[in-house]
Write a structure and sequence with these properties.
The structure holds four protein chains of four kinds. Chain A is of the alpha+beta class. Chain A has helices at residues 8-22, 58-62, 96-100, 126-129, 143-148; strands spanning 46-48, 68-75, 78-87, 106-108, 123-124. Chain A contains five helices and five strands. Classes of the chains: A alpha+beta, B alpha+beta, C alpha/beta, D mainly alpha.
Chain lengths: 159, 367, 146, 375
């Protein structure tokens, strides 16, 4: 190997790094600034609407991990869901359950700050799964919801 | 006095910073020179092939995300191609185009990581890697837009895609495609002519053509060895015969050639993306496939040109809802067969560079 | 486009060179006896016009009665492909000759099949478990392994 | 006028015993030097981390204190509270002493650095000789650390480190000899005083060799072989944690401070400069030298060990010899002309000579090491 270009290549590289020195950092300072997530965001949580659920357990069948636990009891012509539990510690957020749900009772959530200190806290029971102001459904596999959500921040358009 | 001189045995890995995960090399050193080497894998073995036997055909798709986690889209694609071949499912035109767009974006993203980490292993203090992360982030934004996740996409479905793209996707891809060549120029400005990089990579880790073919090496490593073999041209799957692009090949088959092949492939991927966006037809993105698909008894092998090489799925069906056998031909795994021949005689500093130039992902090696 | 060669023609060619080895010619694949596998592989690799210089994949499939080993071969020179199979009827001790001396890429692939399916590849230079640790009981990719 | 006699006289006149008149100034000097060193180390660490961040289009550490100024202190507290681990098979005295040696060699050099006119702890008349002698102690520290910690990676690092430091000492000293020929003195203060134009202009090739050589001795980025993260996992301090690691870290930056101070003294005319106070000029120049190193670090990949050796012996050493010879001729010649008054012809002559020598040298001499070794 020879010293091919008398250091021209190194000089070009240094010019490029210097150019980047003058560029603005692209980092987002996370807890203070938050980017809008995708409208189809698959967060590590599920949002479940009890009134729409018929207890058919299609979601439980479609889960690759066998993660969704449903116990139902017959009440007249429909089923009452006694237990609906998802262990999000084992959930891989693939969204297959949401896609499979024929009554659109199950949605992926938009939250992503679901770190917990204890393992049992990541098991979502019937009460935890219900929507609340913090737990909003995402538009994954549900175009009606998708239209109402804010647009995603894209880095491509960032200067 | 007799001086006792014996070769030094170093177990490089599984938690060495530049083994791309949990790869382990058992190096025998004479001073700094490597005299023998044995690759050891299996620290990330999760038995995905066994897991696939207990899941329905659709439920295997999220598992394939976990193979080569820098190329999840292409893993999805290879798997659904195999199932479609097995069950004889026709995919709509629009889905084919979208698959090509996703696959090429994925290739750019994976090659960005390969080149960036190669820079890191050469000892750049993260600079090229972080520049490349910037572009990869843009691609991940796009993927997040279409499928809601940034790493494990689970986007392809048997018979198409899980969703059609949202309307803001195409303008964003167009913007990305328009500015990407400029960024590739920047990487080349930073790396391609840098004298230290040339000294470190040129002539290092030569893999002769015959050895490359015999060792079942595929992907950029094979092409850098001068074999013009790209499944997109050699065995066009999906709709690749409709696009114009070139296959870059190397001449010296060294680390630098592998680097250049990857850079050039990124440019060619941008070319394919431009054409695919232009030709994208309207229509459905998914055919109706039963939820519990039962393909006829038989077997199918489908392969695609994943960013790391030929990714193939050999599926055997017994007519039930789960694959009877799902064999994954992982490019990263077969590519490390040639590692020993490339390493011997070089120094430890070269070991990480040559290893990085193969660009393996341990999720795929160990499966 | 990679041409999948007509298996009948190749089967007859193999039959001429090495008689009594092809046991069945199913759709798209040739099954040969495991004793002659190495000769067949050598024949396929070295015959002009065939020249399968590239071993794509080795898969072991457990059919409960027997174990099948599938070789996907490609010729980079002529761009054609072939699926070669061999059957080990003895499920307790399946033995197949190793093809490492023909295709070096078979090294890891055979070790993997040995590890997970339990096919012993005779003549492999370094046949030991690759993913699982030495001393692991059983072969996980057998259908009866639970 | 040196401050020391005045200070001693003032102490004795105020009723301090005679022996204390020696001890008190010495302690004062040590404390002042240490404070200066720590201050500069903190400035350097801050600049390094933030500057590197900006080179890489990220902000760098910016959470601790305004603009992340307190990051170094936060790291210091973290490192103090960490467990101090000594490997079982380590040679513990060696393992224990290595960081101490690494750090103290940096402090000791500071004794002869003139931060402004007459501002040094001691005005050794062999100043530069002392600097080069003490700075080689860093090699011993690295060898002790690498050898004592019973780790194969650190052993490799120790071997690399010793080879590297010994090799680069030769061209660096030859480059310094050029400066000494022109200035005619070994004392640091006199070297600065004799710089009517900065010696970087009169000795451009010498400066280049010195810069590369010092970069290698400090194991800064293109030459950071002995702490190569990607190859030998931070090398010699792989087995260090807690305060010992912090001492290595401080020592590394301490050497950086000292090296940039020496470079400022030798080539950048030390404290000299218009308008601003002298000490400020000195610090500005030091920081500029450091930023040059930082810029290199942000851009360059690492060189391989055999390439590093051949760069020293096959390229820098011949160039340094040629440079020394040319300088000697010029010094003989200047008796007739006297460049003290008219240095500029020599500046252009030397710049031209440097360009020619480097071009010719890179054509004829430069080979970056061997390739594959048959085994």
């Amino acid at each position: 190997m020879k010293f091919e270009h008398y250091g021209r290549g190194m000089a070009k590289g240094m010019a490029l790094t210097f150019k980047h020195l003058l560029r603005h950092p692209i980092t987002t300072q996370y807890p203070e600034q938050k980017l809008n997530v995708s409208r189809r965001f698959r967060g590590y949580e599920l949002v479940w609407y009890e009134d729409k659920c018929t207890g058919c357990a299609t979601c439980a069948k479609s889960c690759p991990q066998g993660n969704i636990e449903i116990v139902t009891v017959q009440e007249g012509d429909r089923y009452k869901v006694l237990k609906f539990e998802v262990d999000t510690g084992r959930c891989m957020a693939c969204g297959l359950c949401v896609e499979a749900c024929p009554y659109q009772a199950l949605y992926m959530g938009r939250g992503y700050e679901r770190a917990r200190y204890r393992r049992r806290e990541v098991v979502l029971t019937k009460e935890d799964l219900k929507p609340s102001p913090e737990r909003q459904p995402s538009g994954y596999a549900n175009p009606e919801v998708e239209e109402q959500l804010p647009e995603q921040t894209l880095l491509v358009y960032r200067k | 006095m007799v001086l006792k001189a014996e070769p030094m045995l170093i177990s490089m890995g599984p938690h060495h910073p530049s083994t791309h995960g949990v790869f382990r090399m058992r190096l025998v050193l004479d001073g700094e020179v490597i005299t023998d080497m044995e690759p050891m894998v299996g620290y990330l073995h999760r038995g995905i092939e066994k897991l696939a036997e207990t899941r329905t055909y659709t439920q295997v798709i999220p598992l394939t995300d976990r193979l080569d986690y820098l190329g999840s889209m292409t893993n999805n694609w290879a798997y659904v191609l195999a199932v479609e071949k097995l069950a004889g499912i026709k995919v709509p035109e629009r889905a084919e185009y979208l698959r090509v767009i996703m696959g090429e974006l994925m290739r750019i993203s994976s090659h960005l990581m390969a080149v960036g980490f190669l820079g890191n292993e050469l000892g750049c203090t993260f600079t090229p890697l972080l520049y490349m992360f910037r572009e990869r982030e843009k691609i991940m934004d796009l993927f997040e837009m279409v499928c809601g996740q940034r790493l494990t996409y689970n986007y392809m479905r048997i018979g198409g895609l899980s969703h059609d793209i949202p309307e803001e996707f195409l303008p964003a891809v167009k913007k990305f495609v328009a500015e990407m060549p400029h960024y590739i120029d920047e990487y080349e400005q930073l790396l391609s002519e840098n004298e230290i990089l040339l000294a470190r990579t040129k002539g290092v880790g030569i893999l002769p053509q015959e050895l490359a073919i015999s060792s079942s090496v595929t992907g950029p490593v094979l092409r850098a060895s001068g074999v013009k073999w790209d499944l997109r041209k050699a065995d066009p799957y999906s709709i690749y015969e409709r696009f114009e692009f070139d296959i870059p090949t190397g001449t010296v088959s060294d680390v630098y050639d592998r680097y250049l092949v990857r850079i050039t492939e990124m440019r060619q991927s941008v070319r394919i993306l431009e054409q695919a966006i232009k030709q994208l037809p309207p229509g459905e993105a998914r055919t109706k496939v039963p939820l519990l698909l039962r393909p006829p008894v038989g077997e199918a092998y489908a392969h695609i040109e994943a960013p790391k090489g030929e990714l193939g799925f050999y599926l055997v069906s017994d007519g039930s809802i789960a694959p009877y056998r799902c064999r994954i031909r992982a490019p990263s795994f077969t590519n490390i067969t040639a590692l020993r021949d490339m390493l011997i005689g070089w120094k430890i500093a070269d070991a990480v560079v040559i290893f990085g130039s193969i660009d393996i992902v341990l999720g795929e090696v160990d499966r | 486009m990679t041409v999948a060669l007509s298996v009948k023609e190749i089967a007859s060619k193999i039959g001429e060179a090495i008689p009594q080895t092809v046991t069945s010619v199913a759709d798209g694949s040739i099954t040969v006896t495991s004793q002659h596998l190495f000769q067949v592989a050598k024949f396929l690799k070295e015959t002009p016009g065939l020249e399968f210089d590239f071993l794509v994949n080795i898969s072991g499939v457990d059919y409960l009665d027997y174990i099948e080993v599938v070789y996907h071969l490609v010729s980079l020179k002529h761009n054609h492909s072939l699926v070669l199979k061999t059957v080990c009827p003895d499920r307790d001790n399946p033995v197949v000759p190793s093809v490492v001396s023909l295709w070096r890429g078979a090294d890891f692939l055979e070790r993997e099949e040995y590890d997970l399916v339990g096919v012993r590849f005779e003549g492999h230079p370094n046949l030991k478990r690759i993913y699982l640790w030495e001393g692991f009981q059983g072969h996980p990719l057998r259908r009866d392994y639970l | 006028m040196p401050l020391l006699p005045h200070f001693q006289k003032w102490l004795v006149e105020n009723g301090v015993p005679h022996w204390a008149a020696y001890v008190v100034p010495a302690l004062t000097g040590i404390i002042v030097a240490l404070l200066f060193l720590f201050l500069m180390i903190i400035v350097y660490i801050y600049l390094e981390r933030r500057g590197l961040g900006r080179f890489q289009i990220r902000p760098g550490p910016n959470r601790a204190g305004p603009f992340g100024i307190l990051q170094a202190f936060a790291d210091f507290i973290k490192v103090l509270t960490k467990e101090d681990i000594t490997p079982t098979n380590a040679d513990w005295p060696v393992h224990f002493l290595a960081p101490v040696v690494a750090f103290f060699s940096a402090i000791m050099i500071l004794a002869v650095i003139p931060i402004q006119k007459n501002a040094f702890i001691t005005n050794l008349n062999i100043g530069i000789l002392y600097v080069s002698a003490i700075s080689s102690l860093g090699a011993i520290a690295i060898f002790m650390a690498g050898f004592g910690s019973c780790n194969k990676y650190s052993l490799i690092a120790a071997m690399r480190g010793v080879a590297q430091l010994i090799s680069y000492e030769v061209p660096v000293l030859l480059a310094i000899a050029g400066v000494l020929l022109i200035s005619g003195s070994l004392a640091m203060g006199d070297i600065v005083r004799s710089q009517n134009v900065p010696f970087i202009l009169l000795q451009p090739m010498g400066f280049l060799i010195f810069f590369i050589g010092v970069g290698a001795e400090l194991n800064r980025s293109p030459f950071d072989l002995m702490e190569a993260e990607s190859e030998i996992v931070t090398g010699y301090h792989i087995e260090y944690s807690g305060m010992k690691f912090a001492l290595f870290y401080l020592g590394e930056y301490g050497h950086m401070v000292v090296a940039s101070a020496v470079m400022t003294t030798l080539y950048l005319s030390g404290w000299k400069g218009p308008f601003l106070p002298e000490a400020l000029w000195f610090i500005i120049k030091m920081v500029m030298v450091f930023l040059a190193f930082l810029w290199l670090r942000a851009t360059m990949p690492r060189i391989r060990v055999d390439q590093l050796m051949s760069l020293a012996w096959k390229f820098l050493l011949p160039l340094a010899l040629v440079n020394l010879f040319a300088t000697a001729l010029e010094v003989l010649w200047q008796d007739n002309i006297g460049w003290e008054q008219f240095p500029w012809p020599f500046v252009f002559l030397n710049l031209g000579l440097a360009a020619i020598f480097i071009l010719v040298g890179s054509k004829l001499l430069f080979k970056t090491g061997g390739g594959r070794v048959e085994v």
